[in-house]
Amino acid sequence: MTSARRLGMFLMLIFLVCSSTLASKNDGDFSNCESIVTKWAKSSTEYRVKESKRTLKDLLFFLHIPRTGGRTYFHCFLKKLYVKSDECPHSYDKLHFDPREPKCRLLVTHDDYSLMSKLPEDKTSVVTILRNPADRIFSTYEFAVEVAARFLVHPNLTSAIQMSRRIASKSPGVSTLNIWPWKYLVPWMREDLFNRRDARRQGEFRTIKESRNPYNVSELVMPLLTFIEDPMAHEIIHNGATFQVAGLTNNSYVAESPTIRHCVRRHPVLGRYILDVAKNRLDRMLYIGLTEDHKGSATIFANMVGSQVLSQSQALNMHSDKFSANETGKKF
What's one Pfam family here (predicted)? Predict the structure, then answer.
């Protein structure tokens, strides 16, 4: 099976995972939704590749889909390939850098593809990693529980803002609680954890020792099925990778993004337009990795992207040295 076919199947699966109760095609707003979605899709699809997509451009935009192993690429590859001054500051948080700044050569973020509207498109290469959607959703659930549970250790921290400030005071980096999608998922999970803890204290749940079913931990944490079926998960996690590549998350720069997501939830048949745009954008990317083929993907990344970054850096250093020499010559 070719890589392109596998990627297409992964994205297709995303539209089959955990569907909500949806309206039929005969609903009165279907025509209006179809008009909105198709208009956006037409304006978002690019049919020509003006130059080789395999050539690294001036700015590398790592579109980091959550829970795909992207941190490994960032720490083991990109942070070693680029010097600190090349990284766009606070990129995981929000767009806090000037895209016209020539020294900003690496942008790593959970922001979706709509961020390209703020970047010099003709000078930007995009890379990403995809993962089986069922595994990615389960991993998202586990991580949301893990981060939210830290609040139980610090009961005096009553809000995500306080926790964020505490973390920020100890580290110059961007807090997880400021990053999409965790800035939405963690406070939601934290509130649920505290409600369940309070219910245990009030005797509504049996104590942990009294529970006879080791697989029923609802006294402690939101069950996975409840998590999956909650409207919060439908808004952020279901079809999350596809909407992120399409640039339509609830963190999008596209004004009509909420309307388009609403239309697709009500009329799943319209999802094919979102899928087509996402596949078109994947086809134009410099590199796409697969979490399930981590070793193979990492090898391709090193050969395709890493080698070009090194060549690009050497060329920039030679240009910088030549410029310095010319300036020195002018002084004498």
Answer: Sulfotransfer_1
**Closest residue by Cα to residue 8 from 182, 130, 148:** 130
Range of the domain at 207: 135-228
Q: Which pLDDT value is given to residue 93?
A: 65
Element (H, E) at 253: none
- Rounded CA separation 267/106 (Å): 38
Task: Using the predicted structure, report yes or no on whether residue 49 has a pLDDT greater than 60.
Answer: no
Structural domain includes residue 285:
no
Residue 192 lies in a domain: yes
Measured CA distances, 122 to 102, 153, 216, 242, 314 (Å): 14, 48, 53, 23, 22
- List Cα–Cα distances, 145 to 178, 224, 257, in angstroms: 16, 10, 28
Given a cut of 90, whether residue 206 has pLDDT beyond it is no
Average pLDDT score over residue span 301-306: 90
CB of 291 within 8 A of CB of 69? Answer: yes
Supply φ then ψ for residue 173, to 5 degrees. -75, 180
Q: At a CB cut-off of 8 Å and minimum separation 6, what does 195 contact? A: none
* 223 prior amide bond cis, ω within 30: no
Q: Does residue 322 belong to any structural domain of this protein?
A: no
- Is the predicted pLDDT of residue 198 greater than 90, yes or no? no
Domain total in the chain: 1
Let me know if residue 114 belongs to a domain: no
pTM for this model (two decimals): 0.81
Contact (CB, 8 A) for 286 and 53:
yes
Question: Does the CA dihedral 235-131-160-172 come out positive or negative?
Answer: negative
